[in-house]
Amino acid sequence: xxxxxxxxxxxxxxxxxxxxxxxxxxxxxxxxxxxxxxxxxxxxxxxxxxxxxxxxxxxxxxxxxxxxxxxxxxxxxxxxxxxxxxxxxxxxxxxxxxxxxxxxxxxxxxxxxxxxxxxxxxxxxxxxxxxxxxxxxxxxxxxxxxxxxxxxxxxxxxxxxxxxxxxxxxxxxxxxx
Length: 177
Known about the structure:
This protein is α+β, with helices and mostly antiparallel strands. The protein folds into two domains: 5-63, no CATH class; 75-175, no CATH class. Helices cover 27% and strands 34% of the residues. The protein is built from four helices and ten strands. Strands 3-4-5-6 form a four-stranded antiparallel beta sheet, with no helix packed on it. The longest helix has 29 residues, at 33-61. The chain is rod-shaped.
């Protein structure tokens, strides 16, 4: 059988490698050098737009993909903040038969405590960003009033005491290594 025939019939295709497509695409329909340049330029513009949209989307989402926008405190900064933290007593206009209400702040979150004599009652708590509250003991019927603030890397145990009507937060910090 001669080349270019199928079963003795001519296929009409030239069997020159790489040249078959010319039969189906006439020379007038093929892009010239300017067409290739425009095609590459269009592809580059589309890629740049896609990258820009991706960057804007990541910035809008926040720290989920690109990392935290806030930096965690070092152990030394936490110790310094805990050492200088002092309770800020606040007066309580509301309440039934209790002592003064005190707002306390720790690295793991904020607490509101009422002292009745030497007994502490935990009224409310608000974990700091990245922390959650656990093992809450409201007092005074519990052994001690307190709770635990937990993050992915740190645990801050807070024990609340009252001495002569003044609330104090005793903290113990441990890290997951």
